[in-house]
Write a structure and sequence with these properties.
The complex is a heterodimer of chains A (130) and B (384).
Chain A lengths: L12 H8 L4 E5 L4 E3 L15 E4 L3 E10 L11 E8 L4 E6 L9 E9 L2 E9 L4
Antiparallel strand pairs in A: 1-2, 1-3, 4-5, 4-7, 5-6, 7-8
Chain B lengths: L8 E8 L10 H16 L8 E4 L6 H9 L5 E3 L7 H14 L5 E8 L1 H4 L13 H5 L9 H15 L3 H15 L13 H6 L2 E3 L2 E2 L9 E9 L11 E10 L15 H12 L8 E4 L5 H9 L8 H6 L16 H4 L7 H13 L12 E8 L4 E9 L1
Parallel strand pairs in B: 2-3, 2-4, 9-10
Antiparallel strand pairs in B: 1-7, 1-8, 4-7, 5-6, 8-11, 10-11
Classes of the chains: A mainly beta (130), B alpha/beta (384).
Chain lengths: 130, 384
């Protein structure tokens, strides 16, 4: 690689390339049978070097949530729900849930928020099929 | 291994910078003014300082402090892990003093965040950083949103009620009403806390610390400097720290902080149990943090922090007087509260805290939080 990626960094490019395909990606170590998010050069802390990028199912449960009611983040309209989601493969992501009445423990599925030229951002929705 | 019995370490000076709204100083001159006062307590001068520790006052500013005082320290520490940095500095300074690498250490912090209008939520992370890619796009407002997730998790696991969170703020205010230097001294009722605007569930405005100017310094010395002291030095008998993460999504369990480990290390070094503690100074950035601190350090069982607070244990006259300055919630919060909570612990053990003095206080514990439940440091102080 001779130049920096237009978005993210060299290690996270597969995540954002996946996002453009609406696939939620993470690193997986076959020898350790463990997933890793966010990406590092090898599995931490045990150091396995056999990491490969795989698509997550995109489903999980809300571990914790808060509804932000004061506009502290620029143009972002309040209220909105910030969630920590435990994905079924065992990794956790911080994002937003688009379902305003969601609760802790709810089943959620990834959805994709468009960001113009940038890759879409993975958010979550409560879903019966999740 | 740090042996504070064989190599005693003392706080020989403790002073606040100007507090509240500060228009007539810079951060550096605020620290100089506080250092002069603390050095006078210690019976020392600027030329005696041979170690400086500071954090969160700008890049390489430990050098600016050395230059400003016209000294050349042989030991510096810029460990920067949020508001608890300064309690970690005590741990590190104690090691330096115990092994003879420093003899007089200044620990310092100052901020004019209120006057300058600085807010953490205005911070723009680098777009290719982990924060910029995987934290900031959620539009979680730092740090309120992060602590709100922890408070929500505590509520969901243990049934902690809004009223129980509110009672942390009420305890802080009850103490602040006894402290002439406190920023917020008006009476505060449960109904007023409950009516304050919700910012990020379950955190209301009244669950959040103040945003003031301020800061302070400590002077740490070994036994050789104790005879110089003009005021009674306070002994450091236990220190411990633990650091785990920067991004909250990498924290395994939001109600189990690195404070479990830092507290255990400090209590073991001091040879104390929670029942020995006369004064508790937890870092009250939000009302959730003292509740986590009470559970992490074993003052109550896991999940019972809210009930413990609601019973009135933290109040003046309570079983565990806590946040006795009024805390970050009602006394002062200059962005980083670690130095100020230790200054209050020292004053309580010198028995010079005036109307808010805890009778016959012998052991005080300072417990800092850094970042986003990222790091904790615990310091056990004793009246010598």
């Amino acid at each position: 690689m001779t130049e920096l990626p237009a978005f993210g960094n060299p290690l996270t490019m597969p995540f954002w390339e996946g996002a453009r395909r609406h696939e939620l990606m993470a690193q997986y170590s076959p020898s350790a049978d463990r997933w890793q998010f966010y990406p590092r050069p090898f599995l931490m802390p045990t150091g396995e070097h056999d990491l490969e990028w795989r698509a997550l199912a995109g489903t999980g449960n809300i571990y914790a949530l808060t509804t932000v009611r004061r506009a502290l983040m620029g143009a972002m309209q309040v209220p909105y729900v910030v969630v920590l989601v435990d994905l079924d493969e065992g990794v956790r992501m911080l994002s937003r849930c688009l379902s305003p009445d969601c609760s802790v423990g709810d089943r959620v599925r990834v959805a994709w928020e468009p960001r113009g030229e940038d890759p879409p951002y993975p958010v979550f929705e409560v879903g019966d099929d999740a | 291994m740090l042996d504070l019995v064989k190599h005693p370490v003392y706080v020989a000076g403790a002073a606040e910078t100007p507090l509240g709204k500060v228009y007539d100083h810079t951060e550096t001159s605020m620290i100089a003014v506080a250092a002069a006062e603390a050095l006078a307590e210690a019976g020392l001068g600027f030329g005696d300082i041979d170690g400086i520790a500071t954090a969160h006052i700008g890049m390489m500013n430990v050098l600016e402090l050395a230059e400003y005082f016209r000294i050349e320290p042989r030991w510096v520490d810029t460990t920067e892990i949020g508001g608890t940095s300064f309690l970690s500095h005590v741990h590190h300074a104690a090691m330096a003093i115990a092994c003879g690498e420093a003899s007089v250490v200044l620990i310092a912090y100052a901020s004019r965040q209120r006057t300058l209008g600085n807010r953490i939520s205005d911070w723009v992370p680098a777009p290719d950083s982990t924060w910029g890619q995987f934290d900031q796009p959620s539009r979680i407002p730092p740090p309120i949103g992060h602590f709100a997730l922890a408070a929500a998790r505590h509520r969901d696991l243990y049934g902690t009620t809004p009223e129980q969170f509110a009672h942390v703020a009420l305890a802080a205010r009850a103490w602040a009403r006894l402290n002439p230097k406190a920023w917020a001294r008006d009476p505060l009722t449960l109904a007023e806390v409950m009516a304050s605007p919700m910012i990020a569930d379950p955190i209301r405005q009244a669950d959040c610390c103040l945003r003031t100017d301020g800061g302070g310094v400590l002077i740490l010395v070994g036994a050789d400097r104790v005879p110089d002291a003009a005021k009674r030095p306070v002994r450091v008998i236990g220190t411990g720290e633990a650091a785990s993460h920067k991004h909250l999504h990498q924290m395994a369990e939001l109600t189990h902080t690195p404070g479990v480990a830092s507290g255990r290390r400090a209590f073991e070094m001091a040879g104390i149990t929670p029942g020995d503690v006369d004064v508790f100074e937890p870092y009250d950035a939000f009302t959730i943090t003292p509740i986590l601190a009470l559970e992490d350090l074993g003052f109550c069982a896991r999940g019972e922090g809210g009930a413990f607070v609601e019973e009135g244990n933290l109040l003046p006259g309570g079983a565990l007087p806590s946040m006795t300055s009024g805390g970050g919630l009602s006394y002062n919060h200059p962005g980083q509260f670690g130095v100020l909570l230790m200054i209050e612990a020292v004053r309580q053990l010198r028995h010079e805290a005036g109307d808010r003095q805890v009778p016959n206080a012998q052991i005080a514990v300072g417990h800092g939080f850094g970042g986003f439940l990222s790091a904790n440091s615990t310091v056990v102080f004793a009246r010598d």
